[in-house]
Design brief:
This protein has about 375 residues and is of the alpha/beta class. It contains 10 helices and 17 strands. α1 links the parallel β1 and β2. The chain binds flavin-adenine dinucleotide. The site of flavin-adenine dinucleotide (FAD) has 28 residues, from α1, β2, β3 and β16.
Length: about 375
C-alpha cells in the first residue's frame, strides 16, 4: 500500500544544516528522481543570526558575504596582537540573505516540497506535523533531543552566550579591514568572556559581548557590558543601535550521535555538528552535508564518519579544562590563537590538521590542567 505524503528523504528544520543539505541534494543529479520534503515551523525570513567563518577558497558564500576580513586582532590588558589570515579570509553572511538565496533555489526544484509545520514527533518513518503525518524513507532531523537538556550535566557542557549590537556612528570610527576576534580587556567576573568586533564600514560594526561558561546573565547585564566596552574601549559617545543579535550555542561533549536511528540521522547542532571547543558550525554544515551526500550515494549510513573523529577527544579535553577553570579562558585562547600561527588553528578547527600539528597546538597551550584533563579523558 502506498502511504500518502510519502517521500524518499525528509529534512526537519530549514536552518543552517537543513538548508545546506537540501541545496546539495538539489545540486546533485543523483537526487533528481528523489522526492524531498523540507519542514520548518518558521517562515525563515527574519535575520535571526549572522554567520562568520573562515575559508581559503572562493565559494558560493562569497556572493552572500556582506564583509570579508584578511586581518584580525587579539587584545588583552597587556598587548594587541595583529594576525594576517592569508590564505584564509574571515567572512560574514546574514542569515536572512542565506534563507532568501536557498528559498529561490528550492522554489524552482520540482522534487522538493517546503512545508511550514511544527513537527511534534518522529516515529520510525512517520513524521507528525501540525495537520498531516508524512512518511519518508529516511529523515534528517535538526531538533535538539530533549535528553541533551536533561543529561547535559553529566557531560562537560558550557554555553557560548552573547548579545551583539549593530551600531552606526556619524563620523568614521572603525577600520573595516580589521576585525577583533577576542578582546579580553572587559570580562564578566573571572570567566571566559570577551568582546568581538566586526566592522562593516568606517561607520558601522557589530559589537558582541560573549561568554563561554555555564551561567546565562540577566538581559540588561549584556547591555551594561556592551555599553561599557563601546564607551571605554571604542571611545564612542554618539552611536545608534540599528539591530540586536542574541544567542546561545551549546559547547558540549554530549554524544549527539547516539540519537541517530535506523531511519533518522540527526543533523546540525542536534547531530553534534557544532565544534564544542569553538561554537563554530556553519562551515561544518557545509562539509558534513557533502559527506552525507557522498555516504548516501555509496549506500552507507548518511552520518558515517561525521563528528566522531579524534578532534572530539581534543574538544572534551578543552571543555574539561574550561569547565573546571573557567578563568583560564583568556590565557588558553590567547595562546591558541596567537602562539602557533592562526592558519594551523584554523586547520585544527576544520579537522584538517595532522596528529603532529595537533600536538603542536596542544603543546602551545602549555598548561598542567591540559595534561591532567588529557589523562582524565583517556582514563574514562
Ligand atoms: C545568534 C547566533 C549566531 C551564530 N553565529 C555563528 C557564527 O558566526 N559562526 C558559526 O559557525 N556558527 C554560529 N552560530 C552557531 C550555528 O552555526 C547556528 O546555530 C546554526 O544555525 C545551527 O544550525 P542548525 O541547522 O543546527 O540550527 P538552526 O539554524 O537553528 O535550524 C534549526 C531549524 O529547525 C527548526 N525547528 C526546530 N524545531 C522544529 C520543529 N519541532 N518542527 C519544525 N521545525 C523545527 C527551526 O525553526 C530552525 O529553522 C550562531 C548561532 C546563533 C544562535
Amino acid at each position: 500500500m502506498t502511504k500518502p505524503f510519502s517521500y524518499d528523504f525528509a529534512i526537519v528544520g530549514a536552518g543552517a544544516a537543513g538548508l545546506q543539505l537540501t541545496l546539495k541534494m538539489i545540486n546533485d543529479d543523483f537526487f533528481n528522481e528523489k522526492s524531498i520534503l523540507l519542514l520548518d515551523k518558521d517562515e525563515k525570513s527574519a535575520n535571526d543570526r549572522t554567520w562568520c567563518f573562515w575559508e581559503k577558497e572562493e565559494s558560493i558564500w562569497d556572493q552572500l558575504a556582506i564583509q570579508k576580513w584578511k586581518t584580525g586582532l587579539f587584545i588583552n590588558d597587556k598587548k594587541t596582537i595583529s594576525f594576517d589570515l592569508a590564505p584564509y579570509q574571515y567572512k560574514m553572511v546574514r542569515s536572512a540573505d542565506f534563507y532568501a538565496y536557498a528559498k529561490a533555489i528550492i522554489e524552482k526544484a520540482k522534487n522538493v516540497d517546503w512545508v511550514k509545520s511544527e513537527v511534534s514527533d518522529i516515529k520510525e518513518q512517520e513524521i507528525l506535523g501540525e495537520e498531516k503525518t508524512y512518511h519518508s524513507h529516511h529523515i534528517f532531523d535538526s531538533r535538539i533531543p530533549e535528553a541533551f537538556h536533561e543529561k547535559k550535566s553529566s557531560y562537560h557542557s558550557l554555553i557560548q552566550h552573547f548579545k551583539g549590537w549593530f551600531i552606526e556612528t556619524e563620523s568614521p570610527a572603525f577600520d573595516p579591514e580589521v576585525f577583533t576576534m577576542m578582546d579580553y580587556r572587559l570580562k564578566w567576573k573571572e570567566s571566559t568572556s570577551f568582546t568581538y568586533v566586526l566592522p562593516l564600514s568606517p561607520t558601522s560594526a557589530l559589537v558582541e559581548f560573549t561568554l563561554f561558561n555555564d551561567q546565562l546573565l540577566p538581559d540588561d547585564e549584556y547591555d551594561h557590558y556592551l555599553k561599557k566596552y563601546i564607551d571605554t574601549y571604542l571611545s564612542l559617545k554618539n552611536y545608534t543601535i540599528k539591530e540586536v543579535e542574541q544567542g546561545l550555542i551549546p559547547m558540549s561533549n554530549y554524544p549527539f550521535h547516539k540519537h541517530h536511528s535506523t531511519y533518522t540521522t540527526k543533523i546540525g547542532t542536534a547531530g553534534g555538528w557544532v565544534r564544542p571547543s569553538s561554537g563554530y558550525s556553519f562551515k561544518n554544515a557545509d562539509r558534513y552535508s557533502s559527506m552525507v551526500i557522498e555516504n548516501i550515494k555509496k549506500g552507507h549510513r548518511p552520518e558515517k564518519g561525521i563528528a566522531t573523529s579524534r578532534f572530539r577527544t581534543y574538544d572534551s579535553i578543552f571543555l574539561n579544562v574550561l569547565a573546571s577553570r573557567n578563568d583560564l579562558g583568556e590565557d588558553i585562547f590567547t595562546k591558541l590563537y596567537t602562539k602557533p600561527e592562526i592558519q594551523s588553528v584554523f586547520r585544527f578547527l576544520d579537522e584538517e590538521s595532522s596528529f603532529s600539528e595537533d600536538l603542536k597546538v596542544m603543546f602551545s597551550l602549555n598548561r598542567p590542567q591540559f595534561w591532567k584533563a588529557f589523562l582524565d579523558t583517556f582514563r574514562s
